[in-house]
Amino acid sequence: MKNLFDDLVETFAVLRGPNGCPWDKKQTHESLIKNMREESEELVAAIEKKDVENMKEELGDVLLQVLLHAQIAKEEGLFTIDDVMQGLYDKLHRRHPHVFGDHAKAASPEEALAVWKEMKQKEKGK
Asked: Which of 43, 68, 94, 116 lies 20 to 30 Å from 16, alpha-carbon distance?
């Protein structure tokens, strides 16, 4: 079985490469702002309508935006998609000490949110 995520990452490298798509190669972080907003709004609309098929498509469109921004950043020497994923992984583990650490277990969604906010405040205080 192929690694679909790695294949997608490579697809964006090809799309922006020498023989890639002229539209994709021209894009910048700034030129894509409108697209990210539109795709996010379309996802929200699908969720609100409980339209599962459209939600699946719109999640893909939001992922497209994330991968395209990451490819542009890689080309600019700023960061890679692996850096994005590592940052998310680290944040999820830091902000869920009640799951991944030695913090007391959260007994409710409200307690879990309070722990998240507490950890976020500690991070921002650094």
From this structure: 43
Q: Which of 87, 88, 107, 85 is nearest to 98 (CA)?
A: 107
What fold characterizes domain 4-79? Helix Hairpins (1.10.287)
Tell me which residue of 32, 19, 105, 113 sits closest to 65, measured CA to CA. 32
How many C-beta atoms surround the C-beta of residue 81 within 10 A?
19
What does the radius of gyration of the chain's CA atoms come to, in whole angstroms? 18
Task: Say if CB 94 and CB 119 are below 8 A apart.
Answer: yes
Model confidence pLDDT, tens digit, residues 38-74: 999 999 999 999 999 999 999 999 999 999 999 999 9
